[in-house]
Specification:
With 300 residues, the chain is mostly beta strands. It contains one helix and 22 strands. The two termini are 14 Å apart.
């Protein structure tokens, strides 16, 4: 299967050994009922095998909708998926799954979502600080609070539970490029702003960056925020220039076998048309720059 034949949102790529594993939200089931998570695998980022179902809803599992944005992280010699789930009458949250291999099978690890129970949350990602303390960085969704936040919450060393209280890192409207959502869901006079898909990246010079997505003048976007002190506790400043500004986002960074830094995101941001796309990224003095799509990594 070619890259441009895969209909997923939120593509997350893990290089493990000599194999690339790509996880994502199932395009056809994104907005409705679902019961599992998939993975595709490849040796060259061009030809993929899959989908392989790596997690299937066990009997009694609380969520039956919106199985969103699975990320697979290797941690303490095991593999952990952070994914968002939803059911009627229960707030969306990010729960953690565990397996011995990137292709699973993944089992429930945290008994419940590790994001706050009373908040609508999504898109949790793993961050490990210099002291090897794990945290989840996630979005407090706009659907109840009007303006989305990006937050952080410490996790236990075994990733089973959250520890302490969540901290707001920044709010959506702090981005100079952001555009309010075209919705009256919370009332005609309520301005709503979206935060999606945080992903943490440590630069060669020690700078700590966060990729995240929202909506700008040309549609769905990929943006960058930078910590003022090189840690999650710093003041986060929004980069004025977008990494990807037109009709694509929810990205992450990974390195190829050859050591090239790559941006993975989905584009276009349109139901059933979403595809994974890869761009080579240049890093210089704590900043990231996107090049053109490399012919080696695209069939478009």
């Amino acid at each position: 299967m070619k890259t441009n034949e895969i209909n997923i949102r939120d593509p997350f790529v893990l290089l493990d050994g000599d194999t690339y594993y790509m996880y994502g939200t199932r395009g056809p089931r994104c907005w409705g009922n679902d019961d599992g998570l998939d993975c595709y695998y490849s040796r060259d980022l061009e030809e993929w095998t899959g989908p392989v179902e790596v997690f299937h809803k066990p009997e009694g599992f609380w969520a039956d909708q919106n199985y969103w944005a699975p990320e697979c992280h290797r941690y303490q010699e095991k593999y952990y998926i952070f994914a968002s789930f939803k059911s009627d009458g229960v707030c969306r949250g990010t729960q953690i799954l565990k397996a011995d291999h990137p292709l699973g099978p993944f089992q429930i690890h945290s008994e419940t979502p590790v994001t706050p129970k009373e908040w609508e949350c999504l898109d949790g990602t793993l961050y490990i600080d210099s002291g090897q303390v794990p945290s989840i960085v996630f979005c407090h969704e706009w659907v109840k609070i009007a303006e989305g936040d990006v937050c952080a919450l410490m996790l236990s060393q075994d990733l089973k539970t959250s520890v302490g209280e969540p901290k707001v890192l920044f709010r959506a409207s702090e981005a100079p490029w952001i555009k309010k959502l075209d919705t009256d869901r919370l009332g005609k006079d309520v301005e709503c702003y979206c935060t999606d898909g945080p992903f943490m990246y440590r630069c060669q010079d020690g700078s700590l960056l966060m990729l995240w997505s929202s909506f700008g003048e040309e549609g769905y976007t990929e943006a960058i925020a930078k910590s003022g002190n090189g840690d999650i506790t710093g003041k986060w400043e929004q980069e004025p220039k977008l990494l990807f500004k037109k009709d694509g986002g929810h990205g992450m960074l990974f390195k190829t076998k050859e050591g090239a830094l790559m941006l993975s995101l989905h584009s276009p941001n349109e139901t059933l048309k979403e595809r994974p796309v890869f761009y080579k990224i240049q890093e210089e003095d704590g900043k990231l720059f996107k090049g053109e799509q490399d012919e080696q990594y695209t069939d478009n």
